[in-house]
């Protein structure tokens, strides 16, 4: 069982491996990055990579979970700072705009991983589904707090706007997609 699976803190070498793997997986694609390259870039042996993570699959999952934790914290901070649920909903799109410009030029790491590893039984699909369900729950909670009608349907619409903004930013060449999605959500939400 790897260090990550055991839930133990990462050693400095393991953290370097995870950081390097995360950068390489995101920038070059999971299939384009081998364990040898990760080990060389992290300044460790390939044996160290396997000792710490167990397998490439486990390293991929650790990479996605790390990005997911960062994303959730980023969104949560902005939603919490918003003056009310309606502003919190809009803050998710503002967070997306900032995130995309800083961390997400190649699109959603979850969607990219699922596209590269299409077997629905691969663990990346579970990680991606958990992240998308979390964001939908954020919308549902905020919509409910704002006392809007039909919170389930509205949460779905807000999530679809969010996900569409990611795709149109990374693939559709629309650099203001998150701002446009925010304005669309603003128009969609009752006043």
TrEMBL record:
Residues 34-53 bind DNA. It comes from Actinomadura yumaensis. Residues 11-71 form the HTH tetR-type domain. This is TetR/AcrR family transcriptional regulator. Keywords: DNA-binding, Transcription, Transcription regulation. It comes from the Bacteria. Pfam families: TetR_N. InterPro entries: Homeodomain-like_sf, HTH_TetR, Tet_transcr_reg_TetR-rel_C_sf. The lineage of its organism: Bacteria, Bacillati, Actinomycetota, Actinomycetes, Streptosporangiales.
């Amino acid at each position: 069982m790897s260090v990550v699976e055991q839930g133990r803190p990462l050693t400095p070498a393991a953290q370097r491996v995870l950081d390097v793997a995360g950068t390489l997986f995101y920038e070059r694609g999971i299939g384009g990055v081998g364990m040898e390259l990760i080990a060389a870039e992290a300044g460790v042996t390939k044996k160290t990579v396997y000792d710490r993570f167990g397998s490439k699959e486990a390293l991929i999952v650790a990479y996605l979970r790390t990005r997911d934790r960062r994303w959730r914290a980023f969104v949560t901070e902005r939603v919490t700072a918003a003056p009310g649920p309606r502003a919190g909903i809009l803050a998710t799109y503002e967070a997306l705009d900032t995130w995309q410009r800083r961390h997400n030029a190649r699109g959603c790491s979850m969607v990219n991983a699922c596209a590269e590893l299409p077997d629905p039984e691969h663990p990346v699909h579970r990680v991606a589904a958990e992240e998308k369900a979390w964001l939908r729950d954020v919308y549902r909670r905020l919509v409910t707090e704002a006392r809007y009608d039909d919170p389930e349907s509205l949460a779905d619409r807000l999530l679809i706007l969010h996900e569409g903004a990611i795709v149109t930013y990374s693939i559709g060449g629309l650099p203001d997609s998150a701002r446009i999605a925010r304005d669309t959500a603003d128009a969609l939400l009752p006043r």
